[in-house]
Amino acid sequence: MQRFTQLFQAIDATTSINEKVRSLQSYFQQADPADQVWALYLLLGKTRRRTVTSPGLREGFLQIS
């Protein structure tokens, strides 16, 4: 994750599209495949869906008690 943090800071520190692209190219050439997937996921702004909603939790606890 340290390498991803450095990538994120490099992208954030510049307004130059070319520098951003160079930073991304460098990262994806050096990072492990699993880290590359997570980096894409995070950079695209994806979020994980909730498995259980708040009302579902409430209902489950009411049934238990």
Description:
This protein is an all-alpha fold and 65 residues long. It has one domain (2-64). The chain is 72% helix and 0% strand. The chain has four helices and no strands. Helix 1 packs antiparallel against helix 2. The longest helix is centred in the middle third of the chain and has 14 residues, at 17-30. It is elongated, with a radius of gyration of 19 Å. It starts with a helix and ends with a helix. The model has no long low-confidence stretch (mean pLDDT 91).
| Percent of residues in beta strands | under 5%
> Given the C-alpha coordinates, what overall shape results?
elongated
The main pleated sheet reads as: none
Rg computed from alpha carbons, rounded to a whole number of angstroms: 19 Å
Mean pLDDT: 91
Low-pLDDT segments: none
> What percent of the residues sit in helical stretches (DSSP H or I)?
over 70%
Number of domains: 1
Order of helices and strands: HHHH
Distance between the termini: 41 Å
Number of helices: 4
Which class of secondary structure composition applies to the elements? mainly alpha
What's the number of extended β-strand segments? Answer: 0
